[in-house]
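Q: What structure does this chain adopt?
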Amino acid sequence: MKFIFDWCQKFDEEKREWRNDAKVLSLEIFQRECCFASAKVSIFLTDTSSIFSKKYVKIGVQLDDSVSKIDLLFSGRVVSFPIAFEKSYVQLELISEPENYQNQLNEFEQRNIDQYQRINKHQFIKEALNFDDLFFSEDDLNNPTIFLEGSTTCFYWDMKNGELFLSDINQGEKNIEICSKDILENSMNISLAREPYKKVSVSLSTKWTQYLSGLIDLYPFIAKKFSDGIICSLTNIKSKIRKLCDLHNGGYDILSCTVKETDPCKLIPLKIFSKTSAKFTLSDEESPKKTEIAFKKFYFHGEMLLNWRRKQKRSETVNLNIVNTNVDYGREKKIYLRLNAIQLPKQYPNWNFFAHYKTGDKILFNGFIFECKENHFSGGSFDEIKWNKLEKIPDALINDNCNSFFETERGKNAIKYALQNAIALMNYSSRYVEISFCVNAANFLHTTINDQIILIDRRFEDGKIIGKIIKTRLLANANKKIMQITIASSLGKQISNSLDQINTYIDTLKVADDEKSKMKIDLQDIIKDVEVTNPPEEQEKVLAQTHAKSISELESQLKKHSTKIRLSLAPQNFGYTKSRNLNLPELLLK
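A:
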């Protein structure tokens, strides 16, 4: 076995012919999971001046001297000033980092984002979850490892051509059998790398703001404070009633205020209403003639329509345990995950009562985005015939029927994401046995960390042990050529078909109802208080107790005691947060 060393102009230079630019005196190539391979190579020094201008190297191997075929083994670039600089040789440090590695990572990111964009975020996904804007922010996209959080795969960089692959942590693409007789004497070492996780506890939290809206007529609530169920006064308070609508903001919009003076007999035909007050006598001592006067009663009826909007901050935390039943004893771990804020599409407003809409306008209503089909005035109810339904939006934000984000489809997808993260941790921890050994490099030269070893030895249970390669080290010089291999083995304790088990768990998941956390709206919650001072009955008492000598004195007294209505509405934008904790059943994995 002979190693060939050639200088190159660039990393990805296609190798057609080998020149053997320098004689290789010793070679060490090392690679481990998720890293570029590195190499130390000592070469016979022939040209001192040119060595400082060279950047890229390719190393090939000729396995049989009788066969001229040379296989590419390693491509890399020089990463440091030559070391061990002697008269006859120089040692170089190399790394198999391709020039386009960042582009490859960007392409990997984009493939995952494209896959996410093709998936309806509000439906269950059949494959492993890669991306959701609840889990990651735009800034996270610069880090491609985030796409592997809920997966049992890791990066593998091919040291020959610098291409990026994904390698499963438990299963290799190629199975390689190695018997005890292939292992160099006294080179095997078995150690416990870690204690596996028996249980992982997950705490998944989210925050959102829930919005509700509706229409309310204030008139009936005010009118029932009067004795006849109709707003009434001895003074004309029409303008004051209309001003009530202008006093309210902070979550309220006045839509219509059409309060008019009316004939009460038309409203309640079978009831007799007095159109004037009781008669009052003027007490003028100089005039022997007694004068009596009565005042007109004003009755008012109409609509006072308000559009109300309620905003409630909410937080919710899901707690669950995942138990690996394959492990009799093991560690426990707790992980905390927080979802990004749930937001409605900011470019679309909520549908409103009594509003003008034009063709093409887009609004949010009842959990969907709608597009207006024709110009119209909305009035007091939503007419779906005039709208095209486009797509669904996160339903936890829309109505009071949903008191838990995690009972929605997208919320259950978030639980699924958390489960995948937890199970990925379990699977990594299950590789708790590490075995390293040395073999003849000539027989296992092209072994990589993308392979799986079946180690056959009668001392193991069932006569063999299976493990994924996590490290390789090639050591070669004039005296020896060996390959040191390290494998990680779960001893059959890894979790199989975890995604199927997660889907089954999610399908049967029922979030417990909680009356306290429901966002209920009652009209009494909106109208805190209606207070009426100086209704017509009180006005008559005041006038009866007044010793007036003239009509103007009575009118002045009546003006001082005009009917007043004070309306108090509950604030709609709450500052406090409704919080809820959900303890879900354990997920038992095997």
